[in-house]
């Protein structure tokens, strides 16, 4: 069945089964491969997208449940003022090692800073604990969030 | 650091276009190199080709080896760019083709990128610079000695006139390259690129989500595949309901793969497994393939290793330890007599579990057959053995196979194997279509080559003056045939051998049907825990400061032993002293109750590392690591400080994550864990600050992908002892072990 999704401000259509997770519709059907598959059970955060601004694990969202909600992906973050700041901080601090988790990290960090512009360490832990970085670049992830929020980094 | 995107697309087709278009008007500088490290290869090598200068001045440098997050796509071209003398901002980096005849060994492993290429690739850049100078000197009718360079330009020293590299590129065609062995290299004080923090070349793509990784590849008409293998490693398919899978909308094919009978040990030069038996489902989307797979109802044939279990291995290890070791690998002095005469003795059994690599990007590969030729796009750490494996398994000629190296979402040794590559190739040929194979997370965790589990039975003794005088280890380790299983061996020179007068190492092999192989800092990631923890036990038994005890143990010689097993005792003393100062070790007695500091040091991958951990352990046994200090000696030059620091901090946290959380257990012949829910990795709330100091010593630079990991684990377990008086002798650490 054909679904019309609002992704990064554009109407995109996908002819897929309704139970297909949004993750695979983004990656395989819409060719937006920035959103990553890591675990398939909402345990790693690599597939994080924003649904109406809320960070969600796209591996757990059947496409039929998306409806008219606004879906934002990493590919849309340069057009989001907070997302752009987060991307710049990630670049300036050279956060990534392999980089595979970083799209999900940036999506979670952008959602955090949109809601909480000056997060404490505890708020960073709470918002980011669902995102695994296998390379363990956590020291820099924390520093980049602080930098993007205009706070002292250490 | 600036934010810019000048990196080209990662597909092979685009790369060829770039080379052709530049090649039409520019010049590729090529030269035979003669690196000392692998002179045998060099005799066979034709011209190398790393650097292209286009008439418009655009400089393209090829990155020789695959990048899986260790940063070599940035670091190796930095070496060339430095000596070529160009501005880093003007350099475009592309992946080299997999072509060992031209480039020598291309792989990501052993922290070898720096030691193998530090000299060789600087010379590649210096030769190119000398050719550009010669071309300018010819044009100006002067000697090359009258010329020098500034980034991107040759300068005529007497007059100050300049030519751009781009304007000289074509003229280089008639310049004979100088001998790379004697070409002059820059003085380190003149470096403009090396030693300056450079963000990873692909950062812009990473932070904006552009296609980059293996799993992001796409070919016209491509189908998606999933491949289910037996939970018991290597069991064959007894039956599968292929028709039920094919009935799922979108499924194009479902078939049984018999696999290579030698898949468990696919031959010399190969790491990990070959083509194992299983069932492939191919569909027009990965989700459809997965749904098809769920309908297969596969029945697996009986397999001899179906009865094995972790509990069984541990019991067998204990039984073997009661007897003499099957092999004695070292016997210095008289251990038994020395132990009898010792003032204090300690006896302890240590154990560590199987570990999975858990790359965040599950194994995957894209493969396409056209006119009898195979092309694969693989996030491999080891492309050439992958090509050979595909050739052997599919009956193809290696020259009919092209392997494109694409970025891997984490390596850690997992992608030194190419099982996913040969699977994708086989499935693409059967399906008669380009195929992207993507493993599920569960496939990935249950079909790894695991860090081998191991069991050590140790005895040690100190004399009345607190000197370590005797040590013995009976090591029970997984074996394949006569020898240890992959990554399950131990050197006869393992520290503290050669520093203690009476040392005996014995090994008893334990055959098992669990695939094993290298995980980041193979061997060392387990042995550092065992020996550095046991040495800490002996220090406490002697009533001594563990850091001072290790310094004394290291003696007063600078080097002990001969290459390749030489141990830089002086370098190790240097990092130990440094980490003591950095961490405030002398004041650790002032820490509150329930807190403690521990030290560990280890030499691996040519790097000397000493680390101190500061932990707090709560009465319910929960461990919080508050900080780790690292003193490192990897020689005189840190090439890319941004990447170097990231590797060290990540390695330390990786080691803590292994020690605090990770284990693969075997039951009924299969891995019990299957996802991050039962194989947890460290998360940000647990990640502590890691302070790092690089000591500059007069040695050639060496690598940083691995050597910071091993000592982090004993630093942690020794800190836990200092905090609680409880000795951690098996991993992972559980709160039950530490409850007050």
Q: How would you describe what is shown here?
A:
Chain B: GO terms for molecular function: oxidoreductase activity. Chain B: This is Xanthine dehydrogenase family protein molybdopterin-binding subunit. Chain B: Residues 208-304 form the Aldehyde oxidase/xanthine dehydrogenase a/b hammerhead domain. Chain B: Pfam families: MoCoBD_1 (PF02738), MoCoBD_2 (PF20256). The complex is a heterodimer of chains A (154) and B (740). By secondary structure, chain A is α+β, with helices and mostly antiparallel strands. Chain A is 34% helix and 15% strand. Chain A contains five helices and five strands; from the N terminus they run ββαβββαααα. A five-stranded mixed sheet of chain A has the order 2-1-5-3-4, with helices on both faces. Chain B has a seven-stranded mixed sheet with strand order 10-11-8-18-15-16-17, sandwiched between helices. Chain B starts with 11 loop residues before the first helix and ends with a helix. Chain B has 740 residues and is an alpha+beta fold. At the A-B interface, helix 1, helix 2, helix 3, helix 4 and helix 5 of A face helix 7, helix 9 and helix 18 of B.
Provide tags for this entry.
heterodimer; A: 154 residues; alpha+beta; Ubiquitin-like (UB roll); DNA polymerase, domain 1; 5 strands; 34% helix; 15% strand; globular; B: 740 residues; Aldehyde Oxidoreductase, domain 4; 3 domains; seven-stranded mixed β-sheet; six-stranded mixed β-sheet; 20 helices; 28 strands; 23% strand; disordered N terminus; AldOxase/xan_DH_MoCoBD2 (chain B); Ald_Oxase/Xan_DH_a/b (chain B); oxidoreductase activity (chain B); Xanthine dehydrogenase family protein molybdopterin-binding subunit (chain B)
């Amino acid at each position: 069945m054909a679904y019309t999704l609002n992704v990064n401000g554009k109407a995109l259509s996908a002819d897929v089964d309704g139970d297909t997770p949004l993750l695979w519709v983004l990656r395989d059907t819409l060719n937006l491969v920035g959103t990553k598959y890591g675990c398939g059970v909402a345990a790693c955060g690599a597939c994080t997208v924003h649904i109406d601004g809320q960070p969600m694990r796209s591996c757990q969202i059947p496409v039929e449940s998306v409806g008219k909600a606004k879906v934002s992906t990493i590919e849309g973050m340069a057009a989001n003022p907070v997302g752009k700041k987060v991307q710049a901080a990630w670049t300036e601090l050279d956060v990534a090692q392999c980089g595979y988790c970083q799209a999900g990290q940036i999506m979670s960090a952008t959602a955090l800073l949109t809601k909480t512009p000056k997060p404490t360490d505890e708020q960073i832990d709470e918002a980011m604990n669902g995102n695994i970085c296998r390379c363990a670049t956590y020291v820099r992830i924390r520093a980049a969030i602080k930098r993007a929020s205009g706070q002292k980094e250490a | 650091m600036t934010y810019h995107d000048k990196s080209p697309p990662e597909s092979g087709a685009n790369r060829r276009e770039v080379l052709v278009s530049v090649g039409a008007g520019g010049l590729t500088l090529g030269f035979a190199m003669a690196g000392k490290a692998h002179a045998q290869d060099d005799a066979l090598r034709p011209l190398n080709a790393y650097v292209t200068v286009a008439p418009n001045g655009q400089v393209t440098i090829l990155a020789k080896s695959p990048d899986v997050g260790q940063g070599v796509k940035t670091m190796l071209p930095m070496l060339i760019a430095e000596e070529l003398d160009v501005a880093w901002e003007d350099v475009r980096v592309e992946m080299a083709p997999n072509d060992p005849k031209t480039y020598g060994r291309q792989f990501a492993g052993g922290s070898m990128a720096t030691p193998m290429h530090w000299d060789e690739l600087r010379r590649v850049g210096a030769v190119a610079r000398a050719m550009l100078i010669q071309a300018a000197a010819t044009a100006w009718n002067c000697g090359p000695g009258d010329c020098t360079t500034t980034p991107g330009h040759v300068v005529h020293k007497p007059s100050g006139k300049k030519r751009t590299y781009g304007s000289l590129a074509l003229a280089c065609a008639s310049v004979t390259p100088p001998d790379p062995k004697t070409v002059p290299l820059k003085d380190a004080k003149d470096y403009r690129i090396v030693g300056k923090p450079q963000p990873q070349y692909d950062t812009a793509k990473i932070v904006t989500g552009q296609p980059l990784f293996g799993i992001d590849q796409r070919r016209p008409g491509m189908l998606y595949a999933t491949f289910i293998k037996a939970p018991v490693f290597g069991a064959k398919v007894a039956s599968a309901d292929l028709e039920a899978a094919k009935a799922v909308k979108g499924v194009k094919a479902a078939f049984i793969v018999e696999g290579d009978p030698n898949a468990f040990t696919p031959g010399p030069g190969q790491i990990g497994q070959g083509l194992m038996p299983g069932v492939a489902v191919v569909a027009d989307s990965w989700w459809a393939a997965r749904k098809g797979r769920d309908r297969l109802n596969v029945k697996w044939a009986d397999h001899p290793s179906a009865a094995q279990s972790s509990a069984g291995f541990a019991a067998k290890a204990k039984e073997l330890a009661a007897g003499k070791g099957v092999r004695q690998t070292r016997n210095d002095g008289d251990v038994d007599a020395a132990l009898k005469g010792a003032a204090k003795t300690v006896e302890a059994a240590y154990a560590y579990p199987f570990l999975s690599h858990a790359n965040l990007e599950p194994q995957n590969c894209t493969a396409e057959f056209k006119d009898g030729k195979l092309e694969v796009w693989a996030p491999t750490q080891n492309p050439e053995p992958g090509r050979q494996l595909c050739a052997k398994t599919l009956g193809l000629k290696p020259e009919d196979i092209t392997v494109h190296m694409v970025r891997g979402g984490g390596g850690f040794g997992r992608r030194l194997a190419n099982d996913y590559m040969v699977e994708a190739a086989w499935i693409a040929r059967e399906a008669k279509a380009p195929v992207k194979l993507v493993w599920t997370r569960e496939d990935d965790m249950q079909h790894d080559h695991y860090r081998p589990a191991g069991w050590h039975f140790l005895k040690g003794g100190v004399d009345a003056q607190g000197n370590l005088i005797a040590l013995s280890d009976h090591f029970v380790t997984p074996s394949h045939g006569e020898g240890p299983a992959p990554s399950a061996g131990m050197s006869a020179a393992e520290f503290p051998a050669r520093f203690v007068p009476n040392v005996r190492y014995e090994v008893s092999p334990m055959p098992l049907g669990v695939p094993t192989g290298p995980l980041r800092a193979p061997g060392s990631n387990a042995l550092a825990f065992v020996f550095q923890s046991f040495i800490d036990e002996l220090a406490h038994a002697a009533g001594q400061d563990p850091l001072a005890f290790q310094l004394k143990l290291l003696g007063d010689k600078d080097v002990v032993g001969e290459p390749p097993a030489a141990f830089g005792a002086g370098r190790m003393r240097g990092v130990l002293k440094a980490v003591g100062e950095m961490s405030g070790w002398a004041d650790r007695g002032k820490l509150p109750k329930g807190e403690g500091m521990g030290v560990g040091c280890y030499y691996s991958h040519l790097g000397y590392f000493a680390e101190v951990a500061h932990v707090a352990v709560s009465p319910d046994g929960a461990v919080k690591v508050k900080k780790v200090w690292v003193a490192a000696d990897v020689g005189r030059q840190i090439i890319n400080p941004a990447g170097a620091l990231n590797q060290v901090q990540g390695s330390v946290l990786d080691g803590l994550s292994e020690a605090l959380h990770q284990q693969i257990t075997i039951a009924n012949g299969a891995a019990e864990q299957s996802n991050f829910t039962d194989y947890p990795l460290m998360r940000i709330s647990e990640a502590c600050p890691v302070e790092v100091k690089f000591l500059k010593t007069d040695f050639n630079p060496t690598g940083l992908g691995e050597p910071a990991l091993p000592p982090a684990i004993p630093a942690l377990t020794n800190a836990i002892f200092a905090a609680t008086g409880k000795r951690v002798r098996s991993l992972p650490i559980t709160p039950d072990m530490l409850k007050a």
